Amino acid sequence: MSTTEIPPRLRKTHPERQQEYARLAALEAAEILDTPPESSFDAITRLAAEYFRADAVLLSFADESRVWTKSYWGEPVRELPREGSIFEMVLQADGPVVVPALSADQVCGECSLMLRRLKVRSFASVPVRASARQILGTLTIFGAQPRRPMSGDELRTLESLAELAASQLELRRLRKICNRQGARPQQQSSRQVTGIWPRLPDLRRALDEHQFVLYYQPEVELATRKIVGLEALIRWRHPDRGLIPPMDFIPLAEECGMILPIGDWGLAEACRQIREWCNQEVCEGSLRICVNLSARQFAREGLADHVEELLRRSGVSSGQLGLEMTESSLIPDAPIAMEVLGSLRRLGVSLLMDDFGTGYSSLNHLHKFPFDVLKIDRSFVARMAESEQALQIVRTIVDLARVLGMSVVAEGIETAQQASMLQQLGCRYGQGYLYAKPLPAEEITRLLRCPERIVPNSVSAAAALPN
Ligand code: C2E
Ligand code: MG
Ligand code: MG
User: Fold this and answer.
1) Sign of CA dihedral 74, 298, 269, 258
2) Is residue 400 within 8 Å of residue 408, measured between CB atoms?
3) In the structure, what pLDDT confidence band is assigned to residue 462 with cuts at 50, 70 and 90?
4) Hey, is 127 helix, strand or coil?
5) Nearest residue (CA) to ligand 1, atom 3
6) Maximum alpha-carbon separation in the chain
7) Distance separating alpha carbons of residues 379 and 387, to the nearest angstrom
8) Residues 50, 158: contact at Cβ < 8 Å?
């Protein structure tokens, strides 16, 4: 099975994991995750900045994979990767971390992204704790220059400011409880009532215990059956329930925010796999590996930085990575989506619009978003042979893409008739069971070793592929 290298914070003993679960539960109770900065905390960061004459101050809280800034003074930062962060240092120290003079090497190593962005040469960070003492976040002051060591009094002042943030959180929590008690009984979600599996803790455990796996489906040039790309599709390899398809857990993951750490894992794992295929010399030339992104992953500004960091770490070139997203994931916050897409584009990764034609206003938005590829939804491909209307839609999409300079990939091709109709309409690329189902990475390696990377005529021939 292919798993990414286990980040240090996941290499945990059982009690450490339990502690982390308790910490995440306390964080959830505080309801401060995955939301924009809140001005109610600004008095604290401003006071810290003035008192310590700091160049920047961040009040942040960390979930499984991200550090979310709730209030900043100085350089605006909304979220940062958790791995190698100051938060991790504070968590490990279970107390304040004060670094009066950072060397240039350290700036590029640990906490690289944040320190580089803020041009930091000194910092001091203290924990913000829940009422049960778990560390939920940190209050950190930054200096652009080295500074003298902090006195005991100064450190206590910084800790008092962090306690102020913690008590504000506690107050908010109590206020919410009061409101709920005063209001009519809350409607439980159908998930809670019927006991539908899975639930949030199941997803968390699955991530922690490396039960997710990526399968890959080839994308081929229709005329030659040559593999030109691969789409990464997540599966959950559950120890008792077997292989679980994405639609059985992605909607819940989106609902509860777990899609962020799961999505981060997927991106990192895809980059690791690309690297491995490159090392095995099976992905030279133009082979693009695409990862699906969900709406929540767009609602944050750090996505492009995150992708850039992953590419840098894995040594994968941006041309080898594609990102697929549906139109509906872009619409809720179109201005942010535009910004995020723009920065991804500048990185050089390909952008693919998935399930095209199913959105409510596909044509309206198409020219606004900088996509390279349109993927025709498989419902049109499936109906094309019987329905004149579906055929007309496919024809329009292909023509439109040509005018806009995008390429087209048809999804869900199951019959030779569909493949030839698509080619007649001018669609060059496609994917579907006719060529190959989504397969584990090892089987894809064998497919990539086929002469000219051409998929054998029968899918069942996959069993007889070269080793
Ligand atoms: P999608 O991105 O549109 O992926 C195509 C889906 O069509 C896949 O289903 C694939 O197995 C299926 N498919 C491909 N060829 C054929 C065919 O010829 N016939 C039929 N009937 N189906 C075909 P899958 O793997 O179950 O994924 C479903 C959806 O789950 C994906 O739709 C995507 O929206 C989402 N998904 C998958 N992996 C991820 C992930 O890592 N992150 C996120 N956010 N979403 C994911
Ligand atoms: Mg897709
Ligand atoms: Mg699709």
Assistant:
1) positive
2) no
3) very low
4) strand
5) 355
6) 79
7) 11
8) no
What distance in Å separates the CA atoms of residue 149 and residue 331, rounded to the nearest whole number? Answer: 49
3-state SS class at 163: helix
Winning range, highest mean pLDDT, from 175-184, 228-237, 254-263: 228-237
At residue 388, the pLDDT reads 87
Q: Which two tokens stand for residue 388?
A: 């004149």
pLDDT at 15: 75
Collapsing DSSP to helix, strand or coil, 171 comes out as helix
Closest CA to 351 of 328, 379, 378, 375: 375
What is the value of pTM for the model shown?
Answer: 0.75
Distance 324 CA to ligand 3 centre (A): 8
Quote the pLDDT of residue 82.
87
Residue (of 169, 115, 110) closest to 142 by Cα position: 115
Yes or no: say if 96 and 124 are a contact pair by the CB < 8 Å rule: yes
Give residue ranges with CB within 6 A of ligand 1.
Answer: 217, 233-234, 245-247, 250, 263, 266, 292-294, 324, 354-355, 378, 411-414, 431-433, 438
CB 168 within 8 A of CB 176: no
Instruction: Supply the residue whose CA is at minimum distance from atom 7 of ligand 1.
Output: 412
Kindly give the pairing relationship between strand 56-62 and strand 135-143. Answer: antiparallel
Looking at residues 194-213, what average pLDDT do you find? 89
Residue 227's DSSP bridge partners are 220
Ligand closest to Cα of 352 equals 2
CB distance 137 to 71 below 8 Å: no
For a ligand 1 pocket test, name from 292, 329, 414 the mutation site with the most ligand atoms within 8 angstroms of its C-beta: 292
Picking from 466, 443, 421, 449, the residue whose alpha carbon sits closest to that of residue 217 is 443
Handedness of CA 352, 323, 64, 75 (dihedral sign): negative
* From 250, 326, 354, mutation site for ligand 1 pocket: most ligand atoms within 8 A of C-beta: 250
User: What is the per-residue pLDDT across 59-113, written as a single tens digit (0 to 9) for each?
Assistant: 999 998 888 899 999 988 888 888 888 999 999 999 999 999 887 656 545 555 6
Query: Which residue's CA lies nearest to atom 46 of ligand 1?
Result: 292
What per-residue confidence (pLDDT) applies to 185?
47
- pLDDT of the residue at 6: 46
- Sequence-distant (6+) residues with CB within 8 A of 12 are 20
Q: How far apart are CA 85 and CA 79, in angstroms?
A: 11
What pLDDT, on the 0 to 100 scale, is given for residue 370?
A: 84
What is the pLDDT at residue 189?
Answer: 47
Q: How far apart are CA 426 and CA 395, in angstroms?
A: 8
Protein residue closest via CA to atom 8 of ligand 1? 233
Dihedral angle of Cα 153, 155, 159, 161, to the nearest 10 degrees: 80
